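thread from #wetlab-drylab

HS: before we spend reagent money on co-crystallization trials with pyridoxal-5'-phosphate, can we at least see a predicted complex? here's what I'd submit
DV: go for it
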Amino acid sequence: MRKKQGGMGTRAVWAGEGTPAWEGAAGIPIVRQVAFAYEGVDDWRRVVLGKAKGHIYSRNTNPTVCAFEEKCRQLEGADAAVSFSTGMAAISNVFWALLSPGDRIVSVRDTYGGTSRLFLEFLPRWGVQVALCDTENHEEIEAEIAAGCKMLFLETPTNPTLKVLDINRLARAARRRGAVVAVDNSLATPVNQQPISLGADLAVHSATKCLGGHADALGGVVCGRKDLVERIFRFREIHGAALDPTAAYLLLRGMKTLHLRVAQQNESAMRIARYLSRHPAVEQVFYPGLPSHRGHEIACRQMSGFGCMLSFSLRGGLPAVKELLKRLRTCWRAANFGGVETLVGIPATTSHVECTAEEMKKLGIPEGLVRYSVGVEDCDDLLADLAQALGGRRRR
Ligand SMILES: *Cc1c(COP(=O)(O)O)cnc(C)c1O
């Protein structure tokens, strides 16, 4: 099995596919069947023992789900991949499969709200020490790694203020301590950022977001080093957070256009960020593609595009944000991102539903912050919509 076959677009379309399925169907069918049947006990045993290829029971493996894993594996340029029912299941299973009581995990304060809950509430209860650092403070992260680290867990860019972490630099520090490095790559996608080539052992995704891209299926995936992925798979088999085959099918179909969607979103988000940064009603714009962004230099080094998500604060604070959200037309007001439709929300109703107001303040999330996930609509229409909603005419 080759690691990568062709460019990003060719892999998005063909990876995991290409063998005619049932009755020669040109594509991956949805195999909803829970069990797989055998003529004789000997063949069956060989598959159970891993001596022959095949499937036994869909909590363990399923052909539609395996095709999804193979597509993700190739897009991330990884040795192996294992999928999950959701992104949070993927992240939880990484922790529960690889950490033990007494281990220490180093991460940052700005991780996705659900991940942050695992760090603050659940991992400590299981005897895992958690060291959370200031997200952009690379020296502090390196010092915490040096103080003892079984796993380094990064997320970059972060949500909703798009803070950027230097994966290569921090992975080197973790490697010196013999720690496993995992990176949540949900926001960047493998099109814009490849954590494994930057030194990470594992790239983790909420496939629900950009990979699927159509906001119609939940899923998660972990790609990376074979020995680690195998341990995570063994845990998932028993833990049971398996991806549903219909969700796998929807995610596979969505991923065929990943490179096209992400290219469009990169371009539109950049234009919108530039436009907003010159608008008088806007206080601050957070987008790693802007030279004014604190993480711009690192982002230029490790990303080939800056992604679909930007955020901005309004001078009028929360009342102005409420007014803007009411006036916007070409978007859903909903808690998601990375889909073909533009999505708008505020952190308290989206990425940080799980956080208290005080926790959000500590993270430096402005009260009047708007999170804007750019879809694949015509960018001119999105700019016009923002212009009318912000009041005043659109200026280029
Ligand atoms: C949404 C999200 C998750 C969780 O994914 P689910 O599929 O909703 O469980 C994890 N990490 C990031 C960065 C996310 O945006």
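DV: The first strand starts at residue 80 and ends at 84.
HS: ok that's useful, forwarding to the group
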